[in-house]
Amino acid sequence: MSAVYKNMNETSNTINVLVTGSGSVYGLGIMRSLKESVLPVEIIAIDSNPYSLGLFFAAKSFICPQAADEESYYMFIKNLCINHQIKAIFIGSTAELPFYSRNRESLEKSTGAKVFVNSPEVIELCTDKWLTMCYLQRSGFQIPASIRYPEDDGMLSSFIEDTGFPLIVKPRFGRGSVGVVLVKDNQQLLENINGKKGLIIQEYLTDEDQEFTVGICINQKGKVISKIALRRYLLEGVTIAAVSDDYHHIADYCAMVASTLGAYGAINIQLRLKDCMPVIFEINPRFSSSTCMRSLFGINEPENLIRSEVLCQEVIPGSPATGLVLRQYMDYYFPLDKLNSLSKENLH
């Protein structure tokens, strides 16, 4: 059953939306979901790299300054939103999240566009994986046994004794699976921690076929407007296959986590089952690489956010269809004129 929408307002007028970081797997997932939507959406895509695929798929595309150049980037976004009557901003770049989080209120006030981004507090908490673990544990949610390195070096021997090998070593501050290592003995552990700082050593949750990615969307009022749990299979840290089945209890559990956290917009929770219970090892305060996969199961997160936040419709979460989605990367051909016109249009 797909979501139910109440207070249906007139939606025949085109809704202009901005997708940033349109070349990333997150940005492309947002764009594809918006294209699947029945809403009359026109996508304006931006990226700092002219070779970003999303720029070639949008109705209008612009090359933007780097978000690190905060003043120029802010003015660029503000003017773009005003000139193109943007109603909503979707962030497809992890690196841009802190900028939008800090400037959300100002941008919404000056442009009238809704900015779907979590608060600075939520982003800080989720970016620091140790803080994430501490928060979850304090809030009564299950986590893998974890220690910091080198801060908890004195506890390492007893931790190994209690937990056993294999163990996971990962950066305390990191993105996705970058820098995550599975170590199978003391020698491998020492090779991966010696002389390093800012690490977390963690219990390895053994059931690889019980790994889930869970998407929760929450509106401004704190109401869950969509939830979906998918059993996933990874290749180099990215979901390549996802199964939807009777996983409602996992989605409900993660909806509680997101609500407790005070999330807004999209939040993405990674977990494995241990003794049939969800054990969360990561929370990403953004759209997922499996956003488009979710829309194929009938859970269209970008559409639900537009309906709730822009059109002021009441969105009652639906249940995803059961099935399997496989991901295969494709190659696309474009004439050089397309690239040249894109570059010229945005150099002025």
Automatic annotation (TrEMBL):
Keywords, A to Z, come to: ATP-binding, Ligase, Nucleotide-binding
**Gene3D superfamilies, A to Z:** 3.40.50.20, ATP-grasp fold, A domain, ATP-grasp fold, B domain
Q: Which PROSITE patterns match?
A: ATP_GRASP
Q: Which Pfam families match?
A: ATP-grasp_3 (PF02655)
Q: Does the keyword Cell division apply?
A: no
> Known InterPro entries for this protein?
ATP-dep_AA_Ligase (IPR052032), ATP-grasp (IPR011761), ATP-grasp_PylC-type (IPR003806), ATP_grasp_subdomain_1 (IPR013815)
Span of domain ATP-grasp = 133-310
Protein name in UniProt: ATP-grasp domain-containing protein
Species assigned in the record? Clostridium yunnanense
